[in-house]
Amino acid sequence: MARMKFICDTERCIECNGCVTACKNENEVPWGVNRRRVVTVNDGVIGQEKSVSVACMHCSDAPCMAVCPVDCFYRTDEGVVLHDKDICIGCGYCSFACPFGAPQFLSKGAFGVRSKMDKCTFCSGGPEANGSVAEFEKYGRNRLAEGKLPLCAEMCSTKALIGGDSEVISSIYSKRVAVRESNGKYAGSNIFGWSTAYGPSGSPAPTPTPADKIPGAKS
Amino acid sequence: MKLNFKILGACLVAGVLLAACSEPPEIAAKVAKRPDVAPYMGADNGFMTKGWTPGNQESWTEAINKRNQNQSEYSRVK
Amino acid sequence: MMEKSGTTVSRWVDAVLEKNDMIDQQTNVKGLFFWGHAPNSQTRGLDMKRAMNKLDLLVVVDPYPSATAAMAAMPPAEGDVVNKNRNVYLLPATTQFETSGSATASNRSLQWREKVIDPLFESVPDHVLMQAFADRLGFGQELSTNYKMLSSKFAGKQWREPQIEDILREINRSCWTIGYTGQTPERLKAHMRMVATFDPKTLKSRGGVDPVTGYDTTGDYYGLPWPCYGTAAIKHPGSPNLYDTSKSVMEGGGNFRANFGVEREGKSLLAEDGSCSKGSAITTGYPEFDHVFMKKLGWWDQLTDDEKKLAEGKNWKTDLSGGIQRVVMKNGCHPFGNAKARAVVWNFPDAIPIHREALYSTNEPMMRKYPTAADKKNFWRLPTLYKTVQDKNLNEKLYEKFPIILTSGRLVEYEGGGDETRSNPWLAELQQENFVEINPKAAEARGIKNWDYVWVKSPTGARIKVRALVTERVDQGTAFVPFHFAGWWQGTDLRKYYPEGAAPIVLGEAVNTATTYGYDMVTMMQETKTTMCQIEKFA
C-alpha cells in the first residue's frame, strides 16, 4: 500500500513559485487560499538563502484530524489526509492545530465568519465520485484517480519538489544526494532542512535564554 | 396509582434525557463521512492515463510508481 | 529612406518629438503601431506620454489592450495638449494558443506550436491582420506571392489567411546565412511528435522514425537549432553548440566565420595552426565559398545540373538551390569560411571595450576617470547625446541629489510589460504591488519601514509611488524596481482609462516612467539598468 509524501530539496528550490501556480490553476483555488506556499529564509544573504515549498504534510498522526470537533477528516489507504466539506463547520480548530498552516479559510462574512476549510489534497480530491464535477468544484482535481501524481511535484522546474510513494521518492532523493556527495558538493541530506535552519549536525544544542534577559521572567 | 405516576414520570424524564445521548438515525446518516472511492478505481472523466486497469490496485500502484520516475532526471539522461 | 538604418524602438519617442531639421528623414514619425509591444518597457515615460499625445495615428495590436491604451487615454501633463487629429485603435490579436506556427527559443531550437483553442472574442491572428493591412495598402499580392491563401473565418467575417506553413517555407528559401533553411514545417512537426526520443541533456535524437510521415529523426538535434544549413533534403541535424570543431559540419560542428575579409594590415584573418572542423577537406583557414572558389577547388562538377543553373555567379548566401552549401559540407568544409575569432573590432568606436561610466552615474570620481563618449549628431537617424548629459550630471551635481543607483529588472511571476501576466489571477496574487528594494541602512536613514509607501524620484522630474521592500538583497547605494507594472502614473490610478473590463487585476507604477536618457554607442540599446534616484517616505 502506498504512503504518499512530498520531499522538497532545499538545495534545488529556486523560489520560482511554479508549484504554487500549478496548484492554483489545477484546482482553481480562490484568491486568498494558498494550498501551497514557498517559504524563503535568509532572503538576500549570499550563500545562506534557502527556499522550501510547503503544503499539507499528510501527517501520519495528523493534528488537524485529532482536534476536529465534527470529525470530518479521514486518511485514505494511500496515506493522504482528506476531509469532508459537507460536514466541516469552519470552526478553524484544524488551522490552529496544524504547525504548517495547511488548513485555510476564506473570510466570507461578517464577524470573521469562515468558509469551509480548504487544503492540499495531494491532488486526490475528496469524498465525491472520482473525477466528477462535484468533486472538482469542492476539492479540485483528482489526479491520483487519473493515474497521475500531484501537479506541483510533476511541474517543479528544478525537481526540488518531488511527490509520490515515500519509498519511491526517498530512493530518488538519496540517489541525488549520493551524486552530489560524489561531486564534492554539499549534499543537503537533511530532508526537511533542519540543518539549514538550525545548523549542521554537530552544532551545539541551543542554550536557553537566561532569565535576566527575559522581561518579567522569574529566575 | 400515585406511586405509578411518579415512577412513570421519572422513567419518561430519564428516557427523554437518555435519548439525547445518541442521534436519531436520519441525522446520523447525514453527518457520517461519505465513504470515499479509492484512486485505483479510476476517474470516469476522459483524463485517465493509459497503461493500467481501473479497479486493479496493483496495476495502479505500478503505473504511479513508474510515472514517479519522471521526477528524477537521472531516468531520462543517459 | 529604405536604404539606411531605421529608428530603433528605444528612440521612437524622439522621432516624433525631435525638431524636424535634426532628424535624418523628411518628416517626423506621425503614426505608430504597437504590435505585441508594451510602452512601459521603454525608458523616459514622461517623454513617451508627450509623444503619444502628438501622434496622428496610434494602433495597438495585442490580446491585451495593454498599458498603451490607458497611457494614450489619460489626460496630458500640465502645459501639454493632445493632438486633435489623433486616432487610437485597439485591434484584438490572438494569443499563441489560438493559432499555430513555428517559434524559436533562445537556445536556437525551433518548435512547431499547434492551435489549442479557437480564437476567443473577436481576436484575429497576427499574420491575417498583416495580410489585411497589406491588401488595403495595395501590396497584398506581393506580400503573399509565395503563399497558398486560405479563406478563414475570424470575428464573424471571412479573411484572407496566408497558410502559415508557407511562411516558414519562404524563410527556409531565403535565410541561407543564418542557416534557417533546414527547419521545414515537416521536419519540425515530426520532431514535435517524436519529442520523447530526444535526450534532454545533449538534445540529440536516440533514433526513431515518425509513424505519421516516416521521417527518421536519427542524428537530428531537437528543434534543428539554427544554423541548420542547406535544404531539408540534405538533412543537416542543426547546431547544438556554435563553432564546435570537435564535430564535422554535417554533425552540427563548425568554426569561426570569415566575415571580415581574408587579411587586414598585412595579417591573415583566416584560421591558422591547423584549426578547422573535424573531417574538413581543407585544414588551413579558408574564405567564404562562392562559385569562383568552388571552380578553383574543382568541386563545381559535384553540383547537379539543376543546382549549377541557380548557383552560377552566386555565393553560398545567394545560391537558391543550396547546392554550394551541400557540396561544401559534403567535403567537410563550412560554407561561411574558416577564420580567426575577431577580438579587436576595428569598426566599433571602442575597438576593445573600455570602461565608460554611465551618464547618470552616482560615482563622480569614476565619471571623471572614465568619461563617456562624444555626442553623435546623426545616429540611427537621430541626434544622440552622451557627453552633454554626463556633463550636466557633473555640473549640477545630480549625483548628490539622487545618490542611489536605480536598476530595473525582472520578477519570476510576470513577463515584459506585464499586462498579460498581471491579468492572470494565480500570478497576480503572488505579486500584488510594485515595490523598490532598499537596503536596511538606506531605509533607516530615511525613516522608511518595510512596506511603507515611498516616492522614487529621478532627475527627469518624475516620481513613482511604490512599496518599500527593505532587504539585504541590495547594498546601501543601490535600489531595484521591477519593470513589469503599469497602470499607475506618478501616484494616480489609471484603471478608469483602460477599456471597460479589460484592465489587469494588478496595476502599479511603471519604473520606466522615471528612467532616464542613455543609449549604447553601437546598438542604440536603452539604458535601463543604471540610472539614479532618491527615495523618500510617502507623506
Describe the structure.
The complex is a heterotrimer of chains A (219), B (78) and C (539). Chain A is built from 7 helices and 6 strands, in the order βαββαββαααβαα. By secondary structure, chain A is α+β, with helices and mostly antiparallel strands. Chain A has a domain at 4-58 and 120-207: Alpha-Beta Plaits (2-Layer Sandwich). In chain A, the strands form 3 sheets. In chain A, strands 1-6 form a two-stranded antiparallel ribbon. A two-stranded antiparallel sheet of chain A has the order 2-3. In chain A, β2 and β3 (50-54) form a beta hairpin. The termini of chain A are far apart. The mean pLDDT of chain A is 87. Chain B is elongated. Chain B contains 3 helices and no strands. In chain B, 47% of the residues lie in helices and 0% in strands. The N and C termini of chain B lie far apart (96 Å). Chain B is mainly alpha-helical. Chain C is an alpha/beta fold. Chain C is built from 15 helices and 20 strands. Chain C has helices at 12-17, 45-54, 66-73, 126-137, 140-143, 164-174, 185-193, 291-297, 305-311, 323-330, 364-369, 387-395, 398-401, 425-430, 440-445, and strands at residues 31-35, 57-62, 87-92, 101-104, 110-113, 149-154, 157-162, 263-264, 267-268, 376-379, 382-384, 404-409, 435-438, 453-457, 463-470, 478-482, 487-489, 492-493, 508-509, 531-537. The longest helix of chain C is centred in the N-terminal third of the chain and has 12 residues, at 126-137. Chains in contact: A-B, A-C, B-C. Chain A binds chain B through residues 2, 70-72, 74, 76-78, 82, 84, 86-87, 124, 126-132, 142, 144-149, 153-154, 156, 159, 162-165, 168-169, 172, 175-176, 179, and chain B through 31, 33-45, 47-49, 51-52, 60-61, 63-65, 67-74.
